[in-house]
Specification:
323 residues; 3-stranded antiparallel sheet; mainly alpha; single chain
Amino acid sequence: MIFEKLAALIAEQFNVDADSITMETSFTDDLNADSVDILDLSMALEEEFGIEELGEEEASSITTVGDLVRFLKNKIDCNFYRNSAQGGVPACPRSFCMKTLEEKLGYTFQDPALLENALTHSSRANESRGKLPSNERLEFLGDSILGMVVADHLYRNHPDLPEGDLTRTRAALVCEESLVEVARELGLGEYLRLGKGESSGGGRERPSIQADAVEAVLAAIYLDGGIGSARKFIQKYILSREIAGLTKPLDHKTALQELVQRESGQVLQYRLVGEEGPDHNKRFFVEVDLNGKSVGSGSGRSKKEAEQMAAQAAISTLEEKKD
């Protein structure tokens, strides 16, 4: 299977007939490959086989297609056993990994490129020199679809709830914290395509990246299978929390206030310290001070959500000090 996939990649990369490629085919003599060609092929190998790009020493030792097949087989086997031992998702050909993710999603894509796009962070798109689109447009669409489907569900299924309660329940369902739980249930971080810096910096576990990826995947499902398929995904992973009674908004600000008021003279203050992103996808950053000293920080898609996350962090800080 490795040879067939590799031959197809090489044929596309070098504009040759895949049937003409053999294990003895030389990259320099038969394909006239230069360093730029090898770099582009290395990036394609990363996408298809889920391995890191070739290093200079590795690239210099590979002269024929057979050399590369043996290198890939060894790399995949080593990653499989290492990741399995660590409890992670085994390294595998990208197409196989996508099938595994589709099983978790409960949806099979007619156009797999949509799922790949949904998993491509802007850091990876930037490294691809324009060859890969990021998932930001899908994230924008998914945010709107999620809000509409959740609002429709709440309106139809809770005719007695006033507008304020509907708004608070919807906010609890679609907030970053809720979407991160969905991402972790799916193990979505393991499937993300990140730039090298973002990946090495813990990007796979970054809440904002995980939440955005859930919205992008939702949009991909919608574009591929329509609103019915998107609604099934939302029902399975998000609305099920509402049915299970898990969507009562967590009021961390009230909990923090109650915690600090156990001693008299305590003063809490929330400060907006920054914001970033376009108007349709703004992110706010807040710090909370206790008696003039910062005890927690947080971010969110609204100032209120950022304050809640800062309060949650402050509670953890204060409880650790108490212990």
